[in-house]
Amino acid sequence: MDALLGTGPRRARGCLGAAGPTSSGRAARTPAAPWARFSAWLECVCVVTFDLELGQALELVYPNDFRLTDKEKSSICYLSFPDSHSGCLGDTQFSFRMRQCGGQRSPWHADDRHYNSRAPVALQREPAHYFGYVYFRQVKDSSVKRGYFQKSLVLVSRLPFVRLFQALLSLIAPEYFDKLAPCLEAVCSEIDQWPAPAPGQTLNLPVMGVVVQVRIPSRVDKSESSPPKQFDQENLLPAPVVLASVHELDLFRCFRPVLTHMQTLWELMLLGEPLLVLAPSPDVSSEMVLALTSCLQPLRFCCDFRPYFTIHDSEFKEFTTRTQAPPNVVLGVTNPFFIKTLQHWPHILRVGEPKMSGDLPKQVKLKKPSRLKTLDTKPGLYTAYTAHLHRDKALLKRLLKGVQKKRPSDVQSALLRRHLLELTQSFIIPLEHYMASLMPLQKSITPWKTPPQIQPFSQDDFLRSLEHAGPQLTCILKGDWLGLYRCVDCRRFFKSPHFDGWYRQRHKEMALKLEALHLEAICEANIETWMKDKSEVEVVDLVLKLREKLVRAQGHQLPVKEATLQRAQLYIETVIGSLPKDLQAVLCPP
Fold first, then answer.
1. If you average pLDDT over each of 28-37, 110-119, 445-454, which comes out highest?
2. pTM for the structure as a whole
């Protein structure tokens, strides 16, 4: 690895900024300031070590001007180490997700809107949470008083690029742990030279003598994912390491012990049900939770989820209270204590140690919650929920055949991902069709009147429409599709964060489309004819409204063509030119 790193001066270990006490808030950093490009990918890099007197302690934070609150520091420390029940020896990679605490985000995140407008909803930047990507090492070391070397390298980001950041840690962490060399500053300086994340583009990201080539999906991509195409390889030495995806996990490997219950788990995710995942280690826990939350794509997973959670988390009391119903959260844990604390939760998934033998591993059994034991709970899905849709036996046979033929895991994952995508699309298409019917007709949009309102969403009207337009008529997978929407008359989906998130997003898009159509109608009208019998007040009001629409459209908030923008600007100039000189001076100051 020395050859990859090159030879250069190395600074003393303390140069990365020890994690001293800081106040709540974020350090202000303008887009042109140092580390602005770094901040497009990562918030900071942390090193967490085990102190014999203090326990987990934050040793380094880089860049050193990035401020974490005391609560955030505590969360990172506890979430970056497996708990004592895991017994992780050697190297372990996992991830966590934690809530941001206090303080205002820095201005370097001003490009969030630009990135989010182009990225799929599942890959947009988190507005209120941090992801932590962890590389933990625990090995015997007689030179250490406790007998073990224990340290974690953590990448903190608001981007859900689990595959990319795990690959990055695989390059950085071994060098850092083996040499204990302060190479982090050099690595961070390299990341600060990366191009900004750009959905739809293939990016070459150099780090430690390796060029990692990635493509961030765009929201206009087709549903089928594809690895990045390689460009200009002859100019890249060494040849790039092509990462097939920045975010997709090996679904088949994650779901191997629960394949027979995929239908039930997909329905629980769709309805936003609380689910506790108890796993033997943080890597199994975090991958299972992330795999479950990816089941609903292209829908955004709008419930809370914690890939790895401990009893020391600041939200422990909030999630474990019995004074109210369990929150809409998927919680990944490794401490069996949670079985006792959360035995009132309606759904608990207990998974065992992963076994990567040639055959399909023993599938966990579906069990009633009453059979849940507080100690020595056996693997199983403990729930009273009964799936509305039938199990896809054809898919299970194909996957089993793939195991027998030693089919590559990425191909198996693609089969599973396509199945889940088709399920979600089958469920959501009737909602999309009904939502489209609420949009006013284009012929009802006239230039000089306020555009008509989008009709309200009626659950009863939608449910009636399913009789002749529901997925039960087109989807191969059979079962009680209508019952899934109604969910035993309690309409759980309509009460879930997923419906609320989907509806808000679609309503916002439709409102912007309506505004764009209205602007187009104005630009196609004869403005001089309209102005003939209008007062100065009405004309000035039109100028102000047109300017507001033009600013929104130029900021890519309105889906309009460039020709429409040019015509709107021409209209504004024409209207202002018709006004008296004193008003022109007010509307167009020098």
1. 445-454
2. 0.86
